Structure formats: structure tokens, C-alpha cells
Amino acid sequence: MLETVRAYAAERLAARPDAEIVGERHCEHFLAVAERHGAERALWGPDGLAHAAALDAESDNLGAALAWAVERRDPERALRLMAALGPYWRSRNRFAEVVEWVDRVLALPGVEAHPVLRAHVMGHKARALWPLGRTAEQSALVEEAVAAARHAGDPLVLSQVLTMSSDRAWTMGQLDVAQARADEALEYATQAGDDWWIAMACYGSAMAAPTIADLRARTDRAAGLLATAGNVHHLTDLLGAAAYGALCMGSDEDAKVFVERARTASNRFGRYYGWMMLEGNLGLVALFAGDTGAARDAFREELRLSRELVVRPFAHEGLMGLAAVATTDAEDDRAARLRGASEGLRDEPIDAVQERLATQFFAPARERHGADAWDAA
């Protein structure tokens, strides 16, 4: 619809005596649409793309319904809409919108009266902060969401936010914390009798595996549970993350197996975000195997996707990978500049994969190029 026509129609509607009733009915209708198609089981299941397309078709109406609820200071409707739209917007890489709208919704008076919905919505914001490169804010918000969920006392929401907390701890290299949170998440999911979140808790446990044998066994268990629950999206994520975990442990052959399994699963699902993560893992597997041509292609594709989807952490990895490739071609000045660019985007502690890259590729190139020249570049 042309914006001028939309503005004219809005003015005419506002002048009607029943404008408030029409607005409320509109909000109720699209709240039902959001809750039907935006549920995680719908979006992340085998028919996820169809559900996302249904929401795409009503994107403007969904946004208008949320705006109406916020403007009317209706905390319950606003929280329900945000809880439903959060996974959808994240699936469409609209991370900044998630953060902006969550802040507006949580600022409404009366949201504290809905602790379960509030914990859900805080979780959506926490998950949206990482792709935006706002890692420093994420940890505190995750813990705030956990506290809100504990206050609510609902076992299902507790399982959900504890799974998110486990994932965050793993990303920060805190395996003991990640395992403890995953175990607690599994306990609550089992208490709730929810197969979806039982599988997700087992996913968290796999990421906290201390050895490669544990990683293999836990990943296979979680993969089976995710498949049974119909969670095809997180099945791809699990296998991709397991590949990275194997690289951290120095088991490149296991990483290769995991990443090939992830590619097969992703081919059946077709989300660009998942492909971006897999391209990075493919690049790392190829790089450590000595196939620099394949590594270069994969990192370039990861970087292209991270630019298109605006996901800072994967841009860091793509630039770092291309820097390592440049060292193998003795393009040391270029390698140093790419390395510096990647460090400018790093928001998390250096992990075992980055330490391997530094030892195997960057330290020899720095010595070869000269420390002063490398650092200046």
C-alpha cells in the first residue's frame, strides 16, 4: 500500500467512533496469527518456512498490532505479541527490531504482573544481542532472565532460559557452568514433560562435553531427540556447533564428520543463518586440513552472508579465516590487516580454535614479516 494511502486510511479510521474497537479486534486477530505461526515448534519444525512465510505476508499488520498494544499500555497483549514475534524476527535476522521492541514492551507499567511472559521476552532480547555484537550486555540479561524465570516458577520457562544460559556459558568457555545449567534445564523440561525442551537441554549438555568421546556420544543422543521432536533447525545448529567443539579439542576428523552431517541437515531446511555458520566451520576444517582454496571460498561466503545478514561475530570469524589463508600465500601484510580487522570485531574470549590459528598461522607470519611491521599493519 502506498504510504499516502495508508496515512489517509489511518486518519479516516481514527475519526470513526468505533476506532478503538476496530483497533482492539485487529490486535486480537493478529495476536492469534502470531501465536499460531510464531511458536518455536512451528518455526523450527519441518514446516518452518511455511509458517515464516505466513508471518511474512502479515508483517506490517503484526507490527501494527504490537504498536497498538504498546501505545495503549496493554502489558499482557504486548508481552504475548513480543513473545510470539521474537522467534520469527530472529529467524528473519531482524535482531535490532527484537531489541528495540523488547525494550519498549518491558518499559510498560504492569509487566511485572506477567513473570512467565516477561522471562520469555527477556530471553528473546538476550538471543538477539549476540548477532549484533553486544556481547557485554548479553551475559547480564541472561542472568536477569534466569532470575525472572525462577521467580515465575514455571518449569517450562525455567528450562528454556536455563538452556539459553548454558549456551551462553559454553560460548564464554565456562564448561562447568554450561553443564550445570544444562542439567538443571533437563530436570525442569522432564518435569514439564516437554520433548522439545528435553532435546534442547541435551543439546546444551553436548556443547559442555569435556572430551571428544563425550562430545560424540552426547551429540548423537541430542541429535536423535531433536529429530524425534521435529526440531530440524536446532539439529543443524547442534551438528555445526559440535564441529566447532571438535576443532577446539583438536579432533579435526570428527569436525569434518560433524560438519558434513550438518550440511546434509541444513540442505533439508534452507536457512541462510545456518549456512553462514556452516561456511565458517567448513572453512576451518579445510584450513586445518591444508586445503586453502576451499577454505578461502568458504570464508568469503561466510563473510558475504555476515554482511548481508548483519551478524558481527561471523564477520570476525570470516576475516580471521581469510587472514590465516593469506599467511599460507606469504601475503603477510594483507594477513596482518585482515587479522587486525577481525580483532576489531571480536567480542568474546579467545578460544582453543583461535589459539590454534594464532600458533599455526599468525605467529610464524608475524616473525617472518617482522613484529613491528605486522603490528603496524
Task: Characterise this structure.
By secondary structure, the protein is mainly alpha-helical. The protein has 3 domains: 1-24 and 62-83 and 99-108 and 116-127, no CATH class; 160-210 and 217-228; 240-377, Alpha Horseshoe (Serine Threonine Protein Phosphatase 5, Tetratricopeptide repeat). It contains 21 helices and no strands. Helix 6 (75-91) packs parallel to helix 8 (115-129), helix 15 (252-267) packs antiparallel against helix 16 and helix 16 packs parallel to helix 18 (312-328). The model has no long low-confidence stretch (mean pLDDT 92).
Features:
single chain, 377 residues, mainly alpha, Serine Threonine Protein Phosphatase 5, Tetratricopeptide repeat, 3 domains, 21 helices, 82% helix, globular
Q: Can I get a quick summary?
A:
The protein is mostly helical and 377 residues long. The protein has helices at residues 3-15, 19-37, 40-43, 48-57, 59-71, 75-91, 95-106, 115-129, 135-152, 155-171, 175-192, 195-207, 212-229, 232-248, 252-267, 272-289, 292-309, 312-328, 332-343, 352-369, 371-376.
Let me know the largest β-sheet. none
Tally of helical runs: 21
Uncertain residue segments: none
What's the CATH topology name of the largest domain? Serine Threonine Protein Phosphatase 5, Tetratricopeptide repeat
Molecular shape = globular
Write down the secondary-structure element order. Answer: HHHHHHHHHHHHHHHHHHHHH
Q: How many domain modules?
A: 3
Instruction: State the CATH architecture of the largest domain.
Output: Alpha Horseshoe
How much helical structure, as a percent, in the residues? Answer: over 70%
Helix/strand structural class: mainly alpha
Strand coverage percent: under 5%
Beta-strand segment tally: 0
CATH class of the largest domain: Mainly Alpha
Average pLDDT over all residues? 92
